[in-house]
Amino acid sequence: MPESSAPQSASSAQPASAQSPSATDASFGFVAGGRRSLADAGIPLGPLDGRYRSAVDGLVEHLSEAALNRNRLHVEVEWFIHLARHQVLPGLTPLHEAQEAGLRRIVTSFDRDGVAELAAIEKETVHDVKAVEYYISRRLPDLKLEHLTPLVHFACTSEDINNLSYAVGVRDAIREVWLPAARTAVGTLRQMAETAAGTPMLSRTHGQPATPTTLGKEMAVFVHRLDRQLRRIEQQEYLGKINGATGTYAAHLSAVPEANWPEVARTFVEHLGLTWNPLTTQIESHDWQAELYADIARFNRILHGFCVDVWSYISIGYFAQIPVAGATGSSTMPHKVNPIRFENAESNLELSNALLDSLGATLVESRWQRDLTDSTSQRNIGNALGHSVLALSNVTKGMGQLKVADAVLAEDLDHNWEVLGEAVQTVMRAQAIAGVEGMDNPYERLKELTRGRRVDGERMREFVQGLGLEPDAEARLIALTPASYIGLAEELARGI
């Protein structure tokens, strides 16, 4: 049996002896020891529903417990209408337009009062989906449909309703909340890639000075990688089924053997905007969820790498952070502007992935025809996506507070002329192939000049002039500086 979704008040969970009969105020009362009860004040347990609620509000519309119940109402109502509209059962006739509209208003009018009523019903049924069935049945007399009360939840097992409700909720959460947040965050990276496409920057492979690039090109690498994951997520299928207690349509055929129940199921699932899964046990197999969560987790990991890189660039002065008026960087060191947006994003991406990885591993397994591990697991989908959305919000805000420190980038390049050793020895190799004398052992000769020592522009030019290169090759190298040794980096950055 699925877990009850009925909220339990904190006071009812405590023994009576813990409740002080003497003093309460308008906000919250006393508990043992004279402390005020934070639970009675409605204080949220977790940060997503407290400190960070504004960043994840959009997910509440799709993945909260109330949203799940609204989606259950939606599936039950549409199944009712589908069966009637297609006269699947003997004696059924299509509903009047006003009746269909009235049924759908049960869904669209589901509000705080509806949530409370549904919770009260569930306290009696101790079953969340059965409570939804009764909630709908109560409203049929007003629509002159009480004679069709048996049609509510007809031939359905709870998982017929649940799998479709989760599929609708996850689909809408991804399309309406997560993807827009992800595109916005990637858009800030893209803007940086474009504006800094030609800004030379010293590379660091293994943390050591290496062939220069441009800041924009390095941003573009992440944009390209993240865009690829977004395309995969945009193409995700959301599967659903409605085939009975063990996926055999046994109850359906017992009641109406002449109906083509697989076709009825397919058209209904597709009517909901989902992809039909024709072969399941009691549960829809959740493989699509595992695929989706793996792709989002991969996106998160790429973004995590970006946050680490940006944090590191900030730490060496490549980016200056624009102070926020009135903000405190450190409680004791007033000079500091900490890269908290990227640190916050890192942590939330890690939390998101821990949940996504767990969901992906758990949901693809079910003992025999059904166990309940997926029930409690799926209730955490909102948290998994919530931490990702929060990270995306922080990346977007953090990028808006960065300013490229051009002078620092230029100074770093000017202190590392030895990175031109790659260009010199490669030109020497080309000259050797062209038949120019004296081009032996180019790598070794540059290694002797540059390894473990700093080389300035004058020393590098002297070395080049003593090699005996052909005039055009020598001229190219003499004109080269660390800042100009960026190859096609600018063009590559603009190519995104």
Description:
- This protein is mostly helical and 496 residues long.
- It has helices at residues 53-63, 65-85, 97-108, 112-125, 128-137, 158-195, 215-234, 250-255, 261-271, 287-315, 340-363, 373-378, 381-399, 406-414, 421-433, 442-450, 457-465, 471-479, 489-494; strands at residues 200-205, 208-214, 239-240, 275-276, 319-321, 402-404.
- The strands form three sheets. A two-stranded antiparallel ribbon has the order 1-2.
- Residues 1-26 have low confidence and may be disordered.
List the helices and strands and how they pair.
Elements: H1 53-63, H2 65-85, H3 97-108, H4 112-125, H5 128-137, H6 158-195, E1 200-205, E2 208-214, H7 215-234, E3 239-240, H8 250-255, H9 261-271, E4 275-276, H10 287-315, E5 319-321, H11 340-363, H12 373-378, H13 381-399, E6 402-404, H14 406-414, H15 421-433, H16 442-450, H17 457-465, H18 471-479, H19 489-494
Parallel strand pairs: 3-4
Antiparallel strand pairs: 1-2, 5-6
Percent helix range: 55-70%
Number of helices: 19
Q: Can you count the beta strands?
A: 6
- The global form is elongated
Distance between the termini: 51 Å
Order of helices and strands: HHHHHHEEHEHHEHEHHHEHHHHHH
Low-confidence residue ranges: 1-26
Mean pLDDT metric: 91
Largest sheet: 2 strands, antiparallel
Backbone CA Rg? 32 Å
Strand content: under 5%
Numbering strands along the chain, what is their spatial order in the largest sheet?
Answer: 1-2
The structure class reads mainly alpha
List the main descriptive attributes of the protein structure presented here.
496 residues, mainly alpha, 5% strand, elongated, disordered N terminus
